[in-house]
Fold each of these.
Amino acid sequence: MEQQVDSLRAEALAQIASATDASSLEAARLKYLGKSGAITALSEGMRNVPKEERPKFGKILNDLRAAVTGALEESQKRLLDAADSAAFASLDLTLPGTFPAPGTLHPLTQLMDRAVRCFRRMGFAIADGPDIETEWHCFDALNTPPDHPARNEQDTFYLPDGRLLRSHTSSVQIRVMENTPPPVRIIAPGSAYRRDEVDATHLAQFTQMEGLYVAERVSLADLKGTLEFFFRELFGTGTEIQFRPHFFPFTEPSYEIDIRAAALGGEWMELAGCGMVDPAVFEEICKKRGDRAYDPEKVSGFAFGFGLERLAMNLSRIPDIRMLVENDLRFLKQF
Amino acid sequence: MKISLNWLRDFVDCQLPASDLETLLRRAGLEVAAILERGVAIDKVVVAEILESVQHPNADRLSVCKVNDGSEHPRQIVCGAKNYKVGDKIPLALPGAVLPGDFKIKPGKLRGVESEGMMCSAKELRLAEDAQGLLILPPESVAGTPLTEIFPTETILELEITPNRADWLSHLGVAREIAVFTGYPVKNPSPQLPAHVEQASRLLSDPADKVTFYTLRKISGVKVGPSPQWLIDRLAAVGLRSINNVVDITNYVLFELGQPLHAFDAAKISGDIRVRAAAEGENFHALDGKEYKLPAGSLVIADNNGPVALAGVMGGEGSGVTESTTDILLESAFFEPSRVRRASRSLGLFSDSSYRFERGVDPEGVATASARAVELILQLAGGTASEILEVAGELPPRAKISLRHDRVRSVLGLEISDAEIDAALVRVGLINSGGGEWEIPGYRREILREADLIEEVARVVGIEKIPSRAEGLFAGSSDADLAYDFAMDLRRRLAGMGFHEGRTSTLVSNADAADFGASVALKNPFGDDQSQLRNSLLPGLFAAVVRNLDQGAKSIPLFEVGRVFTPAGEFPRLALVVTGDRFSVDWRGGTTRSWDVFDLLGAVRDLGAVETNPLPSPPSPFGAAAEVFLHGKKIGLLGQLHPGVTRQLGANAPVLAAEFDLATWRTLVSMDRTTSPLAKFPGSARDIAFTAPLSLPYGEVRATIESLKEPLLESIGLFDLFTDPKGEKIPADKKSLAVSLSFRSPERTLTADEVNAATDRIKAALRTRSGIEFRE
């Protein structure tokens, strides 16, 4: 009997050890521990064993069962470990990824949003005005003389009713002051139009960012500090900024801003116009409002404006301005 | 505006190099657009005299010349030019000279004949941009003289002058500005001429004209002829061609002092000269040979026969100086700038004179300029000048402007002492009248207000002295902020879904606007393709589709956020246009299909809009379309383009398009989000499958189910739709639908009985719809 148990154990352990996969291991389990397995059969033979020998024989059988069960578990673990460690053997992580690419925002939108976020950090709110403007908002209120060349039909688009497509977003300054008492601290991104022939550097429609800050005791020092901070935020602390005296009808003193930054290609570029709001503009606003809220003796302010297209072109090395409106996906997907 | 450095140094003794001047002038607000070099800087180019010229034996177009180059031996040169005669002096490039373009002169044979150099044109020496034939030098030139001595190099500054600074339109004016910023003294012109001024009010005949200041001086016995080389050179330096000595002198003084002058031939003036307003439609023969009908109110200089000049703009034909002129009437005047500007604009006539008069010349310089011109005329053309300068009108008085020092400090944000402020203004030439009053000289007549004085202080002090202040107010969100954020949020979500943002022009053609209702037209469009303001974003995106199809794009998912324009106003819109492949196929294979209208519906649903109302007759260019609603309000339109339009675009897959009004949309959504409680009890689902007439919209099936308001019904989901056009599995006029009904109670686990009962009620309701049959 004991001999029979010993050889059964040896046979079972050998078969379990030689199992190479889950199914051959399961076959071994059934052969020995299954309903009609050899060990099960032995257990059933217990009925015929004399009562006094049963404890001894029972222990032998239990030992056998434990040994076989242990070997089965061990083999199961061995096979699982082997399978786990083989799981990634053939995985090639140099293959290209396959997640579908997302869409893109237009480069002008991205640039505008960078500028908007920066100005918002500085406490500017957004303001808006119509593209179709009255001549008063676009020119008269901005101290532009009646025979100024910009009013020419050669240069500005007009509607048959005498209104026009704003030639600069500065008209939003007027819209804001007309409707809101000081202090005002706004930026206005938007379209402006000039009757230009379209070529590699000109579009009839372009995008500008306008800014206005009017309150008590706003000075040229505020203008300088604001725009220096903005351009360094946008193009890096190494950005060089020069204010060059210039002339605009609606600011005095007026400046053009030249900047040089590695991000913009490292060349000086003429970027923005700015200045202290001309008292004549405030007077015109007071007249229109019918109050003295914008009395130039009480408030002062600065205004600035810059175009986004040329900035985007320098920033992204875009050779032709028309690429910004052609909507070629090969171009758009680069942003 | 060109400024010659040599000429400039007549008025300010400043030897700074051009690059330093550029920096200095930029600081003053005067932009140097370019620094140009003139003259000859080429060695081994000398004056040569042509001794003889014979026909080249082997070439019809060439001559063989013997020239004297100043050495003892005549030199033989082969030449192709024809514009010379024996005895002329010309520039000769000797062997070893290097002409512009790295053109090295070597001795050699031309068609078999020895040539020991090259005779040059003005163009070859870069003295002119375009010149035919040899440059014929003045007869007094001495053979052998290096050309570098005859045409010494000089530097020209090309300036961009802002419209407020008329005083910068002359060498004197720029010299003054350099003096302000360097401290070198200005050498003001002081022509020596007896000035016996005689009031001649008869010159002005318009009593309403309180502005004109007019002077006239007669010079008799002049000899009109060619100008000397120095005068020709100086005019050439500022881009003018020489005409004759008298005309050249008036131009010279214009560029020197900024005062336009006009010289009449006294013999051609009939009777007295009068400055008067033109009669409406009065004829004027200008010296450009054209006849103009003058607008009312323009100012003319007239004699007994009519206008002989349009004041400040252009002289008349036949009254100007010619070779035969002997007596001159020299006009120097100040005209009202706006009057000159209006006349010049309305006739489209522009001249160097009108350019200056309309910006404003210095009235105080009128007599000086006249004297300067007379001095030069006497010197170069001879004759005698009348002792009398006839003068009409009054010199406009100088403005006096008050300045508050505190105001300067407040506007500039700069701590600056009263004395420093005053010093800055004195430096720009203003006169301190005491008591905070400043007197403005005639050449700075644009200074009219305190703000103008503050600007001058800022300019002289320099912006680099102004501190940078970083302070500001808090800013609450405006409605424009909310609109911006809403639009940016939509943009980012669309980009996240795979759409690319485009930007198209606001200006579109008539045809592009025609499909979308009333549009706004431009009065002066640049071309027919840009004659209307867009009333929809779609045509622009369709054009983008065409472009991308041409470029071979497989999948074109585009959107745009922008403004449209109708007679009712301006409206923010969002548009989507998609066509081509829906999925990208990668190295693992997989399949794609074309974008279809349900993809676009899904995208729009993900943006928050779920309700649609199909239109039985969709508007052009759609073939199928539905209105899109949010909370019961219409926000836009979505659909598939008509097959004909699709073919026109060159697309061979469906083109889907949608357009939404963002202003309406924004009023219907909130940035705030509320949540539903998470379910505590398991739900239960039942699938129902049935056939329905092909024409029955799913929306009606859904509406029928929803109308029962089953309290336990949580959601309805379509999970299969089958049609069989061949009628093999189901009849061709039927469709098979499978819908999953999900039931749940927030309070308890449902029993099978109650779920079955609810499902049966739903089925019963559907059965009442004619044509719905359950497969059981």
Note: Chain A touches chain B through 79 residues (CB under 8 Å).
Amino acid sequence: MMSGLNLKHLILIGTSSNRNSIRSGAGIVVILLTFFVGLMMAGAILTPIEMGKAVIGNGGAKPSPEEEEKMVNTVVDGVRSLVIWLMGGESPFSDKKSPEPLEKWADYLMKDRPALLSGVLLLLFTVLPTIFAVGSFNQTTGDIATRGLRYLLPRTERVNLYFGRFLGTTVYSLISISILVVIVVFYIGLKLKMYAWGELISWGVWALAAYAIVSLPYIAFYSWMSGMMSSSFAAFITCLLGALYGPTLSLFSRFSGNLEMLQFVGYLKYLSPWGIQAYLFHHDIKMVIMATSLCLFYTGMFLFLGYRRFATRDL
Amino acid sequence: MSEFAIQIDNVTKTFGPNKALDQVSFEVQPQTIFGLLGPNGAGKTTLFSLAANFIHADSGSIRVLGIDVRNSSELRGRLGILPQDALFQRNVPIREQMVFFRRLADRSIPEAEQDVDEALEMVGLEEYRNRPIQHLSHGMIKRLGIAQAFMGNPEVILLDEPTAGLDPRNAHQVHEIIFRLRQSATIMVSSHNLAEIQSLCDHVAILKTGRLVSYGAVDEITSRDQRIELKLSRLLTEEELQDVLGINGIDNFELLDTTRYTASLDLIDRLGPREGEKIGGARLRQASDDILAELLASLVAQRCIPRYLREGNTLEAHFFKVTTDQQ
Amino acid sequence: MRPGGLTTLAVINGIFALWKLFEALSSGVALGMAFMVKSQGKGPENMPDLEEMLEQSGMTLDLYMINSGIVLGVNLLIVPLLICSLIGYLKQKRVLGKWMGNLYGLVATAGGIAVIYFLYQHNNNLVNMFHVMGLVYPLLTLFVLNISFRKDLVR
């Protein structure tokens, strides 16, 4: 099934696909979406710190270290509550205490790692699947509809078309996310001056690796949907529903109250990368390895299902 | 090495409840131009799509240059195709797209650009090379499609309706390109234009509702059937029409309009069954003359004077015969 | 017919032009209020303690005026550039599209950096992520005009 795989063709097809994506406008929209949404998310976490510092240091007076520390701790506590909630714990507005493992995990993210950067990175996880969907739904479906692939089929194998476009889309998404993470890391380092460069950069690099790993199953799934549909609109809707699958189930399980019968629905989120992606930032390396393996498993499964369909369908 | 450039062997393809192709078999000799004819829905485009491995047959096999088309990697660079309704990328200049196609043939950028420039020059599109596809007319897009099909000098070229929708000038230019290509390649071309196929092709196959109804050399096929058109001085009565149809060798005699009639002549039928005997052109012409003489005598005897008589397209006669008889 | 990407840029230009126009108007109003405080010693009727409010948020009146002035000036420059380049993208013109688009990218980037610089000099906490966001589209414009669409804006 995979015979005819050609690295040079993969690269050619991937780069051509990305170039065409920008020329068509879709790639421009994806870049703007990534940066605006990503920087807004980062701003939501970081701006309270900056405003707080500006207020307590009003009129140009430098705030005292105690004043600054108190203000920063207040914001960091808020970020910690948000992070716990994002990882599946209690809401920031709830009086209940979250389970001990989650509290331990939050301690790792807030104390052992740059707290504000942890908050930004986890918050970005909530929007990345949707951004990936917008950038990935049209990998092949548009060309299937216009039969444009018929000019390529005598020249290369289906395997190169499918995986070339998958790789091109993944690289494009990762470049956008990487620039975003670099901006956030340098912003925190240069502006807030709260953390050492070493810990910021190392946590930033870890985050890039995590985003790279988590992007694969999502884009593989969207690749499958794109290759299955003959309509770009249908592919877009399906991919969007795929992106919202995890968050919808998470919210459902949270708001199902004491109905244990319905709470099991929340466990269905583990059938997608959504349920495991946060574990890529876990303090226990075994959990990180587990999450990575599951992401790679999902990637393999989606790529297999997607290519099997693409290889046999009429083009 | 196969003696045939293309071998279609018992190919069947179904789309849902519709059988698009039903056990079709024929061969195409190397370095010939082969015509594929048929009414709409006959299965021509389906056959092209199968040969190009765009779609997969339910049963049977297609071999190009002795290689099963399902092993498409072995045919890379040796088979070119003009698909009927595929669209080029809208946002990309045509030269850039064509260079991308050539790069997939492991050509470097300068080599690919040179190949593309030569191909565009051959089809008369060199001045449009940096324009996007939207700037090209329908005829130009067809020529561009042909250019990408023969770029790289493939040994077999499939052209699915290369002149569809073209004005006579553009169609003529396409014919010239096809004639030039036959020096080095085997070409299979489909068309609705019977005169075009008759002038271009060495051999033809005719499909009807997915089945092969006729196949052979154009000369041989066109010599078996003849079509004529007559304008008479008056309309024939029913009895007179039956007399005409009773003439041995006249297949049908139909009114076109007012007093214009068309007739199909079956020359083989006139000569009678001759198993194993090859019938030469002279005997077929004799049979044609005999039928016409008898027809004219019958009409004159009934004081229905032919104002003019002309021979119609003979491939057309055969085409109508084979695609109508089996209804 | 133009590439879809140029149409997309034109649409985004339109949205940004409206946004920057609104920003320019707001800055103009802010500047007016600051002048009023400077000359009369107090702000307008609905904001008499403008100077104190600014100081509480970490900004001085002078810095507020400079910031508003820069924002007003830059936006008054870039709104026409956005509109001209919008038309240029749609008609694929070299001067109106490529040159005006590049000029917008350069002016907006320079203006954004100027604002960040002035605010940072006084109190780096006045600079926030939204200032960084303001640099994204101008830089993206410079990139796509000179790489992706360099052969399309030629008329």
Note: Chain C has one domain: 4-148.
